[in-house]
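New to this. Help decode both lines:
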Amino acid sequence: MLTVGDKFPSFQLTAVKGGPEGLNMNTAFTEVSDASDAGKWKIVFFWPKDFTFVCPTEIVAFGKLNTDFSDRDAVVYGVSIDSEFVHMNWRTHHADLKDLPFAMLADIKRELSTACGILDKNAGVALRATFIVDPEGIIRFASVNDLNVGRNPQEVLRVLDALQTDELCPCNWKQGEEVLKPAA
């Protein structure tokens, strides 16, 4: 699995747009690549597959924080091995996903999941991996959960805040709190 300090892989994937455009067959699809949203921090999180049980809870939680990520000059990309058509169908028929504000990327060839090293060896799906990638394309945070356990998007936001201070941040540090100052 790729980790902190590694370059996030190059990719180009078809995605379902966030917002109302993602629910309209005429406007739903776009291409997203590692060059998209240049100069921004990227939150890239993977889920195993659509139409499952834990996945929508995480996706909705990231969606609720989308404005907070955007306020920090970060863009959220959700990724699974499902096609863009499956993503759109899921968004259309799952009440909690209709208002999803970020793009759902289709890694149907499993190229990005494989390049990140987060493809489950038995199930052949992406593990619940999360990466924070800085504007230069370097991974600054990496985390992976078992297929049965959802992650905490609020913690991802907290870590992004800490990374963006470029300071020493103690355990459980939150935005607005004091950072550590080493003795001179």
